[in-house]
Design goal:
This protein has twelve helices and 20 strands. With 470 residues, it is of the alpha+beta class. The chain folds into three domains: 258 residues, no CATH class; 92 residues, Pdz3 Domain (Roll), CATH 2.30.42; 79 residues, Roll (Pdz3 Domain), CATH 2.30.42. It has a six-stranded antiparallel β-sheet with strand order 13-6-18-17-15-16. Strands 8-7-9-10 form a four-stranded antiparallel β-sheet, with helices on one face. Strands 1-2 form a two-stranded antiparallel sheet. The termini are close together.
């Protein structure tokens, strides 16, 4: 997609992309801040403000408990300000209260409901509640989808092996069933993709079932540059196995073992001869892949189609409304595994854990330089993805909301001043030394954390814009 097409597409769908971004961010911010709010109230802390967004207030009201609930102009975050704190970040506190233009000291009753007077364990509980509720919210979303729709699963079997891939290089064969990777049990083909994406080009140990026998393979995925339709770039580890999710359209096949065929009837006849044997097929390039004066690389796939699954092959040639499909595996295609509410919750918890570990691994790879920091995405990239998911339907949009909620909880737990993890770090020090870290030290740390976070946000969003326009 060139820049003109991108601008035209975004212009035509500005309300979808912009609206989806605002909706998903507002929901997740509300969930996060509500976690802080509700635990603060349970711990006897008075809450001054609950804001969705920053800047000038657009709409708000004050409840009976004295909390000002408001929606502010810039919908890119939010905050909860506790009583006694001088700012929403709880970087410092004051025992002075301004009323009707006058300043007075807090009463003893007011000190009892101030955040800073609470014991360190209560303050830590209030702080950790935000990220914790983000995780709980994500688990509820995933569990609800698994319970009502079922969990999409595909067998972890290789229906085909891409020619020239790491899978071919290290000896994987069609119909290999992946049992585990580095000791992690593989239940779904998506688990293989996820493990490879994060691995980049690091060697992994595979336990594979082949023709009833257990074999072990040490293999490295290839580090492959990726680019989505918006131009956002990333790197991913690719092994080169093809899942059993779908068959292959015969009209896409251009060659068999290097021999080119023009007529679909000839391709079908040759395929029938080769059922239950291993051979290579080449795919015709899409028209958009063909450029004047350039040779198009033909993608090839090593397969071993099962005869019993392709008995009907060739019988629909006279019916132009049906497309001939070659099925590669006798394993079931993607199915929706039913769940009870209990099993749905258990699976959602496991998925949330796996997503967190994957995020942590990817972040560490950026820190040590294994993965490029240009893969960091900001509001622009989130908006593009949110719009795409909204267009695809409610289920993809809910899945994105769950993923973003997990990431929001994970990021806020990082030990960076200004984030919840930074507060928890200071509370841990306080519990060890027996007294709070001085406000001056905390203030300097929060200033440094603020500059760091603003720098990261600026870098991520400028990086998004740069990739979009180039």
């Amino acid at each position: 997609m060139n820049f003109y097409d991108l601008v035209q597409m975004l212009g035509q769908n500005i309300w979808i992309y912009g609206g989806s971004l605002v909706v998903v961010l507002s929901i997740l911010v509300f969930v996060h801040e509500w976690g802080h709010y509700i635990v603060a109230r349970m711990c006897g802390v008075r809450v001054e403000q609950f804001s969705i967004g920053f800047g000038k207030e657009i709409y708000g009201f004050t409840d009976k408990a004295g909390t000002r609930w408001k929606i502010s102009m810039i919908p890119l975050g939010g905050f909860v300000q506790m009583f006694g704190d001088t700012d929403p970040a709880s970087a410092s506190h004051s025992e002075e209260i301004k009323e009707d233009g006058k300043v007075r000291e807090m009463s003893e009753a007011e000190k009892k409901v101030a955040f800073y007077t609470k014991p360190v364990w209560k303050r830590a509980l209030i702080v950790v509640a935000g990220p914790a509720v983000n995780y709980i919210f994500a688990i509820l979303l995933l569990a609800g989808l698994y319970f009502y729709n079922g969990q999409p699963v595909s067998p972890p079997t290789a229906a085909g092996v891409m020619v020239g891939s790491s899978a071919e290089q290290y000896g994987f064969k069609p119909h290999d069933f992946i049992i585990s990777i580095d000791g992690k049990v593989i239940d779904d083909f998506s688990d293989i993709r996820r493990e490879m994406m994060v691995a980049l080009d690091q060697e992994k140990h595979f336990v594979v079932k082949r023709d009833g026998k257990i074999i072990e393979i040490d293999a490295k995925p290839k580090r492959v540059p990726m680019e989505d339709r918006f131009g956002f770039k990333s790197e991913s580890g690719v092994l080169g196995l093809v899942s059993a999710d779908n068959g292959i359209l015969i009209e896409r096949i251009g060659s068999i073992d290097g021999v080119t065929y023009e007529r679909q009837e000839d391709i079908i006849a040759e395929l029938k001869k080769r059922m239950d044997t291993t051979f290579t097929i080449g795919f015709k390039p899409h028209k958009k892949e063909i450029k004047d004066g350039e040779d198009v690389k033909i993608q090839e796939l090593i397969i071993k189609p099962v005869g019993e699954k392709n008995i009907e092959l060739g019988k629909m040639l006279g019916d132009v409304s049906n497309k001939e499909v070659l099925y590669l595996s006798d394993m079931p295609q993607k199915q929706f595994k039913p769940h009870t509410m209990m099993s749905a919750v258990q699976t959602a918890i496991i998925e949330s854990y796996v997503m967190t570990i994957s995020s942590l691994e990817a972040l560490w790879q950026m820190v040590v330089g294994v993965r490029s920091a240009t893969e960091l995405g900001g509001i622009v990239r989130i908006g593009a993805i949110a719009g795409d998911m909204a267009i695809k339907g409610l289920v993809p949009f809910i899945l994105l909301a769950a993923l973003l909620s997990i990431n929001l909880g994970f990021i806020n737990l990082l030990p960076i001043p200004m984030l919840d993890g930074g507060h928890l770090m200071f509370y841990a020090i306080e519990s060890i030394i027996g007294r709070p870290v001085s406000e001056q030290v905390q203030e300097y740390a929060f200033r440094a954390g603020f500059v760091f976070l603003i720098g990261i946000m600026a870098f991520a969003n400028l990086n998004d814009i740069y990739q979009l326009i180039t």
